[in-house]
Specification:
CATH architecture of the largest domain: Up-down Bundle
Shape: globular
Radius of gyration: 20 Å
Number of strands: 0
Oligomer: single chain
Length: 397
Amino acid sequence: MRKLAAAQLANSIGDGAFYVTSALYFTRVVGLSATQVGLGLTIAWAVGFTAGVPLGHFADRFGPRRTALLLAVITAGTIATFLVVRDFLPFVLVSSLYTSAQCGLIAARQALLAGLVEPAQRTKTRAVIQSAVNAGLALGAGAGGLALYFDTPTSYMAVFAMDAASFLACALILRGLPEVPPAPSTTGSKLAVLRDRPYALLSFLNMIMLLHIPMLTLAIPLWIVQRTEAPRWMVSALLVLNTLTVVLFQVRVARRVVDLRSAARSTRRAGVVLLISCAVFALSAVGTSAWLCVAILLAAAILQVVGEMMQSSGAWQISFDLAPPDKHGQYQGLFGNGLAVARVIAPLLLTTLIVEWGIPGWLLLGGIFAVTGVLIGPAVRWAERSRVTPATELQPV
């Protein structure tokens, strides 16, 4: 558990700095327009999601530790390549390789976790890792903030170099873990997850629930600046609040999820909490003073992060318990990379609902979360009926 968490802590520090500075680097140093950056990243994340299942299958066949190590090194190489990219087409190509490696790395690390950790401890372990990830993102965001303060090409390039180094550090830590024996090749196994309709449906529903992440990082900042009286520093305050809350409480929330029934219940409650959160966010537009807006936004953000932790805990349990023991790589490649799709559709969907439609859009989005959370329960039961749940099986190490 400690080594798995340390590996993701290492690269999340670099990612935190990368997320804070990448948009400005690509526009001010590379010379791309904001439209080109947005289009290029949309294409890249779509490519990355498509690559998730095949790379997950590769991890099943050749070993998840070996695959994760290779993809971490490739990710480091693509980040370093960004330092010499100066045109749109190379930007799209390198970004697509970057997102493919990232999506494959998610699948391989999840498969590695499933192979090294006994089933009863997987959700708890994933919660510990998520806490480490958020701590790393916070540290990295601080380093990225220094680059923004200096606002020079050198400072931005230093951040990219640090991010590349962080993935090399991740690879070194992964190298010290034992390998999970590769699964034997079976006919038609490469795309088995795509023929598993209950699991595919659950992956789709989970992707919808994951819209709460770009909601926080994309839509809410625009909402605060354009539709409320709150000070702009609330954008960063809400992100810090989210990060620290996950670091402190994600493991505690995950303790309540021990099987598929409790996982379905957790996601159903998460949908309701996210609905209430959206309604409270909508109220911030009718605040009569800046400080009232601040109070409303803080209350909404607390509800949002509670819903996030409940949704994450339920999703981890579902994704592990319903995946066949010999196909964790490709199954996690589909389920775990729903965030990539959410990032593709979020800019248009969330800006339309929240920034343009305002309060009705917030309520509609909250309703989508609530309905999706309810639907996950029947989908889990359908999946249970369609297989023997491998929750009690453990691959040999």
